[in-house]
Structures are given as C-alpha cells and as structure tokens.
Design brief:
Oligomer: heterodimer
Helix content of chain A: under 10%
Shape of chain B: globular
Low-confidence stretches of chain A: none
Number of strands of chain A: 11
Mean pLDDT of chain A: 95
Structural class of chain B: mainly beta
Largest sheet of chain B: 7 strands, mixed
Structural class of chain A: mainly beta
C-alpha cells in the first residue's frame, strides 16, 4: 500500500529552528508537496520538490531524497504565526496526491 | 482570497436531510477535487473531475453524489448521511495533473456535522 509518515505533533520556541520530517512509500513518484494549514482554514501551498536537494524559500526550506523516500521541511526564525499543521503529500505514478496526516506545530514564546 | 470559494462554511444536517455543498474556482484550472478531512487523519480524496469529466471515485458511498456542470463549479450532493460523515469537506483545483502541472489550491472548506 501507499503510505506517508510524519510526526503527529511538535513543539518549538519562537525564534528557533524546527525540522519536520516526512517519509513515504508510494507507487511511483512525481513530486512532493508541503502545505500549511491553520486551524479552520484552507491548506496553502508552501513548497514542491521533484529533484533531490534543498529548495529554499525565505524562512522555509524543503529537502528531498528520492532514494531514501524522505523529505523534511525546515522552518527558521520561528514566529507565533507559524503555529499550524504542516501536511506532506506525494504525487504518485498516476499523478494522484497521497497525503500524510499532518504535523501540528506548536510555537511557544 | 484563495481563488477557490466554498459555501456554506458550516452545515448541520439531520440524517434524513438532503443538502448540497458548492465550490467555485476563479483560477482557470481544469481539474477540481473533493476531499474529506477528519481529525488526525490524512486527507481522503473523494472525487476528481478533469475537464468536467469524473476521473476518480475512490469507493465513496453513494450517499455522496458529485456534480460538475462546468470547469469552474463543483457540487457535492448529500443525502441520508451518517454521523461518521461529520468532517471538513475541502474543494481544490489545479491545472491538469497529468501534465505534472501545478499545486492544488484549496477552498476554506465546509465543516459538516451530521446529527
């Protein structure tokens, strides 16, 4: 079967750095996505990786290793507004998105 | 403004009621999706429409009936639902996923409670 694993919940301190991991087992691979979802709101797109390596976008970076079936989302200089759920999703060989259950990130002052 | 609008935002319905969820996208996309989001579970893909044609139906019970009259509008008709159907229902749109296109854009969702 297809599976995406990510931690259920993480806690970090304002101003610090946090890394959210995602491992996947899918039938084929056509890219990996990270989304942010605040409580009661729509998921919003953060990043897309299709080749190995690091993609940097401001305070957020996303890394992919296809051989290891592994990705992480790195958030720097954490702000209170970064408290949200972070969803990892992989596009399989049929171009269907397979989703993880999300990681709830709690930021403390 | 996400470009994808869903109504209503909240809905409470009895198990014998019939209601419809509406989704409209203003992004010029040609693929639209219905997802179910339950607490602490992955997003569940329910239906996919590509160029107004249904291309996916992931074993969804017949009490959920989708309708896509054009590439900008998507409906989810609900009837005789069960309490376990209570969840957040999200609509999304994207460019044709078969071309490896873009990310999906989501609406705010409809929080459905079945009593």
């Amino acid at each position: 079967g297809q599976n995406i694993d990510q931690p259920t919940e993480m806690t970090a301190t304002e101003g610090a750095i946090v890394q959210i991991n995602c491992t996947y087992q899918t039938s084929g691979f056509n890219g990996l996505f990270w989304y942010q979802q605040h409580a009661g709101e729509a998921p919003t797109f953060l990043s897309y990786n299709v080749l190995d390596g690091l993609e940097e976008k401001g305070r957020f970076s996303s890394f992919l290793s296809r051989s290891k079936g592994y990705s992480y989302l790195l958030l720097k200089e954490l702000q209170m507004k970064d408290s949200a759920s972070y969803l990892c999703a992989v596009r399989d060989s049929n171009y269907q998105l397979i989703w993880g259950a999300g990681t709830k990130l709690i930021i403390k002052p | 403004e996400t470009g994808v609008t869903q109504t209503p935002r909240h809905l409470v319905m009895g198990m014998t009621n019939k209601k419809s969820l509406k989704c409209e996208q203003h992004l010029g996309h040609n693929a639209m999706y219905w997802y179910k989001q339950s607490a602490k579970k992955p997003l569940e893909l329910m239906f996919v429409y590509n160029f107004k044609e249904q291309t996916e139906n992931n074993s969804v019970p017949s009490r959920f009936s989708p309708e896509c009259p054009n590439s900008s509008h998507l409906f989810l008709h609900l009837h005789t639902l069960q309490p376990e159907d209570s969840a957040l229902y999200l609509c999304a749109s994207s460019q044709d996923p078969g071309t490896g296109g873009t990310e999906a854009f989501f609406g705010q969702g409809t929080r459905l409670t079945v009593v």
